[in-house]
């Protein structure tokens, strides 16, 4: 006759089952952790291998109002360089680059999905730049970040521009001391001392390190948002003489100061080539055309778009900075070179005229 197990024996059996269950759970958890670790290691190695086998890319960051009127010209430029570039476009909120709004496959669905309304002369412009950089940094292959407007054109072939930009470890940032225009707001001090205040072109080319500095900046950017605001200057005044009432002039223009000032603030000026790669024509004081005077650089129309114009821009080999008594002689790979790879501001008819002439030989591999 079998005896029933006593309470003590039953309790011992229950503890043994619990121990076995916990042991199996621990073993299973350890196995899952090991598999996850191994998977992560494999994926990391695959990513590193991909970065080693694939060429680094230039991220072309377009700031546009709506569509890109010069997309056909850029389409010719990008052909053949597909593995060496990325494209990101900041346009007005809700605007989509589809087959109805662009004639180039390179721009299809390349708009960022968190764009903002940009107002000229306001901090929203540099906020748009930060948004573009944030998206472009998600691709580890992007190693250079070139800002372009919707009126920019390339002056050389993709191969030439790629080699020019990638041959140096520095960023190209037009940056000089701003001692004349009084745009610095003393209220920025002491966060941004006046000795770090810089001015320059918005159209910079950044290394990945400097792009990360811009995106991670939560000190300088808020000061620009707070103190760099436009005073009441109607847009139509750009076609008229500057008003005598200086209280109606712009007091900052953030896009001409932010990146330059931030890099100076971070002590990184030794890591930049202090010039822009994008040409703009600002020497308009003698122009009789009112449209070519004011707050904006000259806009090149169809009649301006000649091989002579492009040749004159390509031949520039130095830039003089009056406030620093500094002449920047342009070089690449340690040798003298031309200064500019891009130019603005071109209308669509002007760009198409250039595309149909020999002025822009964008398909050539050597320039």
Core attributes:
single chain, three-stranded mixed β-sheet, alpha/beta, four-stranded mixed β-sheet, 9 helices, elongated, 367 residues, Glyco_trans_14, Spore Coat Polysaccharide Biosynthesis Protein SpsA, Chain A
Molecular structure report:
The protein is an alpha/beta fold. The protein has a single domain, classed as Spore Coat Polysaccharide Biosynthesis Protein SpsA, Chain A. The chain is 32% helix and 14% strand. The chain contains nine helices and 15 strands. The strands form six sheets. A four-stranded mixed beta sheet has the order 2-1-3-8. A three-stranded mixed beta sheet has the order 4-15-10. The longest helix has 47 residues.
What is the topological layout?
Layout lengths: L6 H47 L3 E7 L7 H8 L6 E6 L33 H13 L5 E8 L3 E2 L3 H9 L4 E2 L3 E2 L20 E2 L5 E3 H8 L4 H8 L30 H8 L6 E2 L4 E2 L27 H8 L3 E4 L4 E4 L1 E2 L2 E2 L5 E2 L4 H8 L12
Parallel strand pairs: 1-2, 1-3, 5-9, 10-15
Antiparallel strand pairs: 3-8, 4-15, 6-7, 11-12, 13-14
Helix and strand string, N-terminal first?
A: HEHEHEEHEEEEHHHEEHEEEEEH
The best one-word shape is elongated
Question: What share of residues are in beta strands?
Answer: 5-15%
Termini separation comes to 103 Å
Q: Residue share in helices? A: 25-40%
The CATH class is Alpha Beta
Q: Measured on Cα atoms, how large is the radius of gyration?
A: 28 Å
Q: What's the multimeric state?
A: single chain
Number of strands: 15
CATH topology: Spore Coat Polysaccharide Biosynthesis Protein SpsA, Chain A
Question: What's the total helix number?
Answer: 9
Given helix and strand content, the structural type is alpha/beta
**What is the count of distinct domains?**
1
Subcellular location: Membrane
InterPro entries: BC10-like, Glyco_trans_14
Protein name: Glycosyltransferase BC10
Pfam families: Branch
């Amino acid at each position: 006759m079998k005896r029933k197990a006593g309470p003590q024996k039953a309790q011992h059996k229950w503890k043994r089952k619990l121990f076995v269950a916990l042991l199996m759970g621990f073993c299973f958890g350890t196995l899952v952790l090991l598999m996850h670790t191994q998977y992560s290691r494999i994926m990391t190695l695959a990513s590193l291998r991909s970065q080693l086998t694939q060429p680094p890319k230039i991220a072309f960051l377009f700031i546009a109002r709506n569509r890109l009127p010069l997309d056909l010209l850029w389409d010719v430029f990008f052909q053949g360089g597909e593995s060496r570039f990325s494209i990101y476009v900041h346009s007005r909120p809700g605007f989509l680059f589809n087959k109805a709004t662009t004639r180039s496959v390179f721009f299809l669905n390349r708009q960022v999905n968190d764009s903002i309304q940009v107002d000229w002369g306001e901090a929203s412009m540099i906020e748009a730049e930060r948004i573009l950089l944030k998206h472009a940094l998600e691709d580890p292959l992007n190693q250079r970040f070139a800002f372009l407007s919707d009126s920019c054109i390339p002056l050389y072939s993709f191969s030439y521009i790629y080699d020019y930009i990638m041959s140096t470890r520095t960023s190209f940032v037009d940056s000089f001391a701003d001692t004349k225009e009084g745009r610095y707001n003393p209220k920025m001090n002491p966060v941004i001392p006046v000795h770090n205040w810089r001015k320059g072109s918005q159209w910079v080319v950044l290394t990945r390190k400097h792009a990360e500095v811009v995106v991670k900046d939560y000190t300088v950017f808020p000061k620009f948002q707070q103190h760099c605001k436009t005073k009441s200057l109607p847009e139509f005044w750009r076609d008229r003489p500057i008003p005598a009432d200086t209280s109606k002039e712009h007091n900052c223009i953030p896009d001409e100061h932010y990146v330059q000032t931030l890099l100076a603030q971070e002590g990184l000026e030794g890591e930049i080539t202090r010039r822009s790669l994008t040409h703009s024509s600002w020497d308009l004081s003698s122009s009789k055309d009112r449209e070519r005077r004011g707050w904006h650089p000259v806009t090149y129309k169809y009649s301006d778009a000649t091989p002579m114009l492009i040749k004159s821009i390509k031949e520039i080999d130095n830039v003089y900075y009056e406030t620093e008594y500094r002449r920047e002689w342009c070089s690449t790979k340690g040798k003298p070179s031309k200064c500019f790879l891009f130019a603005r501001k071109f209308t669509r008819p002007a760009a198409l005229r250039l595309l149909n002439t020999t002025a822009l030989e964008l398909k050539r591999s050597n320039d």
